[in-house]
């Protein structure tokens, strides 16, 4: 791969991870210097973007369950990603998205049925297919956030975190509520999670 092509590839890969992280946590639309360096190390080491995105969602869900007060960062992924790499499937062991497409077509949610048709049109295989599908889901969740009753989402998240309000700083509380809103929205569409997509492509 030529130097420019490699640089473009790394930039595109980093943008996918940045976009996914920001969508999961909300807040500033950029990576910290520490996260930027860590991500570059991962990408230069050949760690698949799709696996990083799957691990991001896994860690985000665990932190939400524990009601962790600090913002989600890439640094929080290191231990889990190391474990995931030990069990990462081989590229040749991949399948299509047909199983997930079928499940989404059978969904009672018309929005999920619409996503199924977008998934059915995706080309490629393996990690590339997972990345494409996750781009579709990011667009979906962005639309859902924009079109939702914001006040209702805030009230639900605040009620969920109420027992922690006194121990959080104002900034921590704001971040925790935002992350809870986004996590709750994702949990309402489990078929569109990174794990669901990954496990379909790499059964």
What does this molecule look like?
The protein is an all-alpha fold. The longest helix is centred in the N-terminal third of the chain and has 23 residues, at 3-25. The protein has helices at residues 3-25, 33-44, 49-66, 78-86, 98-105, 110-120, 126-147, 150-160, 170-187, 194-201. The mean pLDDT is 93. It has one domain (3-201).
Task: Sum this structure up briefly.
The chain has helices at residues 3-25, 33-44, 49-66, 78-86, 98-105, 110-120, 126-147, 150-160, 170-187, 194-201. By secondary structure, the chain is mainly α. Helix 1 packs parallel to helix 7 (126-147) and helix 5 (98-105) runs antiparallel to helix 6 (110-120).
Largest sheet: none
**Rounded average pLDDT:** 93
Uncertain stretches of 5 or more adjacent residues: none
* Derived structural class: mainly alpha
What fraction, in percent, of the residue positions are helical? 55-70%
| Count of the domains | 1
Seen as an oligomer or otherwise, the chain set is single chain
Q: Tell me the β content.
A: under 5%
> Helical segment tally?
10
Order of helices and strands: HHHHHHHHHH
Q: What would the principal axes of the Cα set say about the shape?
A: globular
What's the number of extended β-strand segments?
0
Termini distance?
30 Å
Report Rg. 17 Å
């Amino acid at each position: 791969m030529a130097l420019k092509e490699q640089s473009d590839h790394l930039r595109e890969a980093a943008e996918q991870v940045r976009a996914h992280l920001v969508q999961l946590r909300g807040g500033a639309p950029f990576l910290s210097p520490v996260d930027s360096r860590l991500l570059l190390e991962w990408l230069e080491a050949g760690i698949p973007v799709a696996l990083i995105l799957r691990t991001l969602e896994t860690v985000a869900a665990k932190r939400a369950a524990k009601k962790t007060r600090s913002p989600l960062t890439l640094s929080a992924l290191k231990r889990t990603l190391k474990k995931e790499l030990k069990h990462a499937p081989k590229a040749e062991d991949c399948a299509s998205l047909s199983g997930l497409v079928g499940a989404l077509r059978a969904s009672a949610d018309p929005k999920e049925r619409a996503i199924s048709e977008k998934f059915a049109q995706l080309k490629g295989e393996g990690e590339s297919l997972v990345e494409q599908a996750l781009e579709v889901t990011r667009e979906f969740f962005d639309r859902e956030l924009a079109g939702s009753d914001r006040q209702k989402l805030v009230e639900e998240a605040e009620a969920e975190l109420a027992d922690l309000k006194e121990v959080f700083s104002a900034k921590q509380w704001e971040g925790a509520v935002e992350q809870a809103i986004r996590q709750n929205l994702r949990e309402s569409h489990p078929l569109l999670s990174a794990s669901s997509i990954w496990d379909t492509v790499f059964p």
